[in-house]
Design goal:
Elements (H helix, E strand, L loop, with lengths): L6 E8 L2 E9 L7 E3 L5 E4 L4 E3 L2 E3 L8 E5 L6 E6 L2 E3 L11 E3 L11 E3 L8 E8 L4 E11 L6 E8 L2 E11 L4 E6 L4 E2 L3 E6 L5 E9 L6 E8 L4 E8 L10 H82 L3 E2 L13 E3 L5 E4 L18 E3 L8 E7 L6 E7 L16 E7 L2 E4 L5 E3 L7 E7 L4 E6 L5 E5 L9 E7 L4 E4 L2
Parallel strand pairs: 4-13, 22-26
Antiparallel strand pairs: 1-2, 3-6, 5-11, 7-8, 7-12, 8-9, 10-11, 12-13, 14-15, 15-19, 16-17, 16-20, 18-19, 20-21, 23-24, 24-35, 25-34, 26-31, 26-35, 27-28, 27-34, 28-29, 29-30, 31-32, 32-33
Length: 505
């Protein structure tokens, strides 16, 4: 925090003495920091979770805006503004499940309570606090865990000279650890194990064990939640009478019968083999003739495929010629794009050549105008297009939060704006580990396709925009023809944490 002090000293004559009086000390508040826990907050399914967040240094947040949200600033989890909770615009899945704890509001404590926690509540949350002149925010993670039912142990018959014992349980999240233990706590190897999510995405487990007589007859099944470090355990004891018994004379009789039937079977087998040997030779000759025919048919198929491949090459050459002809008739103009500083948010810093932009930690004192974005961290390009085909490239690097695309020249600049075609923006965005096209609703894109350099191709005549990976020329996403209205369109960039964007020459 910064402070400015002023001390006024007044001097009065009084006999031969001097009287000095300290009149006033003026203190002006400065900036603050929003702080949350570094480690994830863990909550149990069906119970409540409290997400801590506070101001540093401590100060009253009673007259500030406190906004809890996830991926979208506009669609919030909970909003406190103008001294009371606001519910217009709250995400439907959090309706009547959130509460801002106000006991420490005057000290800068703004924790959020979430009731009846569900699996969908797991993930990242942003705590955003703003006063009249300054705002900050922090990110924290909520992990959800579920304790399932107590293990149910069942005896399911004889197997491999012992007894098959099965342990079952359900309602766990995330996937639990399952262990068999003997009377001394030593781990026993299981015969089989299955862990699978049910219809409610909670895991159910099933593990089996073979118990032999005089070996581990007293055992337990233990299931452990690794997030909560809690476990549930059930035990069972199998008495001796349950194990199968075998008489010695029955074993001897069984061995004699096996040997006798084996001798008879061998004799019959030798006689049959003599008669089948000639038959097998004839079958082999037929197989050879059949294979010769198959080889001949394969040669014919290969010739047919060679002709098809030659035909495909001819069609490809024809398409390449058509593409070259179309490009010569309707060429793509490589646009030299620069950034318009009059539209840049006060927290965005532009280079002198207006080709680079980054997000700063401080808010610049810039002239207020209707063209400048605020509070969205955006900037427009100086150039605008109403016809023709134009392309430019943006270097986005390997990390950070950013968005790249185009926008209507009349796009809204102040207050909350919709990052979608309905709001006048057509773009792709990397946001908290996710890569998406800003359609309505958003279209998830494979994160492996998040490139370090993006080529933006705008076709004003067709009313569409295409995004291409400039590294391998692979297409990323295309807004279909007719998506963009016939008005002036300008390049548009969104800049978040860790992003440093550069317009390539």
């Amino acid at each position: 925090m910064e402070a400015v002090g002023c001390i006024l000293l007044i001097k009065f004559p009084l006999s031969s003495d001097l009287l000095f009086v300290v009149v006033v000390l003026v203190h002006f508040p400065g900036k603050f920091t929003v702080i949350g826990p570094r480690d994830p907050v863990t909550a149990i399914l069906g119970q409540e979770a409290v997400l801590p967040c506070h101001l540093s240094p401590p100060m009253s947040a009673a007259n500030m805006e406190v906004r809890w949200f996830r991926s979208q600033f506009v669609s919030f989890v909970h909003l406190y503004r103008d001294g009371k909770d606001q519910y217009d615009g709250q995400l439907p899945e959090y309706w009547k499940r959130t509460e801002l704890l106000k006991a420490g509001l005057t000290d800068g404590n703004v924790p959020l309570r979430i009731l009846n926690v569900t699996l969908s509540d797991e993930g990242l949350y942003l705590c955003f606090i703003q006063d009249d002149t300054f705002y900050e925010q922090t990110v924290l993670e909520l992990r959800v865990a579920g304790l399932g039912s107590a293990p149910l142990i069942s005896v399911e018959g004889h197997q491999d000279g012992g007894i098959r014992v099965v342990c079952r349980s359900a309602g766990w999240y995330p996937k639990p650890e399952v262990l068999w233990k003997d009377l001394n706590g030593r781990h026993l190897p299981s015969l089989s194990e299955t862990k699978s999510p049910g219809d409610n995405n909670l895991f159910k487990t099933e593990t089996a064990l073979i118990v032999t007589e005089h070996s581990n007859q007293n055992l337990s099944c233990c299931i452990r939640n690794t997030v909560l470090n809690q476990e549930k355990e059930s035990a069972v004891y199998i008495a001796d009478p349950f194990f199968p018994r075998v008489n010695s004379w029955m074993v001897a009789l069984s061995v004699i019968l096996v040997v006798l039937f084996g001798f008879i079977g061998l004799t019959v087998y030798l006689f049959k083999m003599k008669g089948k040997l000639t038959e097998e030779v004839g079958k082999q000759n037929l197989e050879i003739d059949k294979r010769d025919k198959e080889i001949s048919n394969r040669d014919t198929e290969i010739e047919k495929r060679d002709k098809e491949i030659s035909k495909l090459h001819t069609e490809i050459d024809k398409r390449d010629n058509e593409i070259r002809w179309r490009r010569s008739v309707a060429p793509i103009e490589e646009a030299n794009v620069t950034l318009d500083s009059d539209t840049a948010h006060p927290n965005l810093f532009l280079s002198e050549d207006r080709k680079r932009v980054r997000r700063g930690d401080t808010r610049q004192r810039l002239p207020k105008n209707s063209e400048r974005f605020d509070p969205e961290l955006c900037v427009l390009g100086c150039e605008g297009f109403t016809s023709g085909r134009h392309c430019w490239e943006v270097e986005v690097g390997d990390g950070g939060l950013w968005a790249v695309g185009v926008a209507r020249e009349s796009v809204r600049r102040k207050g909350e704006i919709s990052l979608s075609p309905e709001g006048g923006i057509w773009a792709v965005r990397r946001w908290w580990g996710q890569f998406r096209a800003l359609t309505s609703p958003v279209t998830p894109l494979p994160l492996s396709r998040a490139p370090s350099r993006i080529r933006v191709c705008l076709d004003c005549d067709q009313g569409q925009v295409t995004f291409i990976d400039a590294g391998d020329e692979a297409p990323i996403f295309t807004f279909p023809p007719g998506s963009i209205p016939g008005e002036r369109i300008r390049p548009w960039l969104g800049v978040g944490w860790g992003a440093r964007l550069r317009l390539c020459p």
